[in-house]
Structures are given as C-alpha cells and as structure tokens.
Amino acid sequence: MSQPSGSSRQRRPDGAALAIAAGLAVVSAVIFWNTANLGGGASYARIGPTAFPYAIATALALLAVGTAAKAWRGAFPERERDEPAPILWIVGGLAVQLLILKTAGFSIATGLLFAATARGFGRGPLWITVPVGIALSLAIWLVFARLLQLSLPAGPLERLFL
C-alpha cells in the first residue's frame, strides 16, 4: 500500500525557526536583566519605569516559547529557496552606503542604496535608478535638513543647498 504524501510523513524540527526562537529568548533575557538592574524609579507609582520593559520582555519570551514549540513540531510551512543575487545587491548597497555616507553625503550614498535595492528587485537599469535614487534622497535630505532642522550627513551635493 502506498501512503499519501505530505500528511503521514514526519518533518524534522525547523533549525532556522529554532535559531529565531533562541534569538528571541536571548533578547528577552537581556531586557529582563537590564530592567532588573535599572534601579531608581518612583516607588509611589503603581506603574513605574520598569513596567513596560518587563511587559516587552515577557511578550518576547512568550514568542520565543511559541516559536520553539512550532519549530520543534515542524509546523512552519516550507520556505522558498533563497536567491543569492538579489540579497547580495541589497547587502552590497547597504555596505556601500555605510562606507561612503560621511564622504559622499546622504543623497549620493542613499541614492546608490536605492539603485542597488531596485536592481536586487529586478527593477530598471542602474543608469536610470542611480539618478532617480539620488534625486529622491536629495528631496528627503532637504525635508529633514531644511524643514525639520535635523542633521543628516552632508556631502558635495548637499553643500550646494546650504
């Protein structure tokens, strides 16, 4: 007799989901530890400065337990295979932005990140997405620097507007 595929076959525990559960547990433990060592705080109030960090740490601990239980049973759906090229484009764009942000300024660095991300998602050639990304980033920089009076890294392009 042949068995139907899928339901009768046991799946192994999901290692990636178990790693995520462990990460959630670590973050929860760090928040608990930091909150316990916070010290001070108003003792006359029922809800002090430690109430919400404890609530967040508890929620993260519950998420860790739930994720671990579901991962142990293999209850998560099968994930699609990762495509390395788009991931490398996006991570490379982030690396370029971090490396040139101080020297090239916000607009150029973020414009290159925009172009690399667009390329990672399969949108447009770089000769179009780079100038569009720089123009959008310059508009964002102008809003933050001029209207909101916030400081973003200025490069040669931004210095034209200072």
From TrEMBL:
Residues 19-153 form the DUF1468 domain. It comes from the Bacteria. The keyword Transmembrane helix applies. The chain crosses the membrane at residues 15-34, 54-75, 87-114, 126-144. InterPro entries: DUF1468. Keywords: Membrane, Transmembrane, Transmembrane helix. The keyword Transmembrane applies. This is Putative tricarboxylic transport membrane protein. It comes from Oharaeibacter diazotrophicus. The lineage of its organism: Bacteria, Pseudomonadati, Pseudomonadota, Alphaproteobacteria, Hyphomicrobiales.
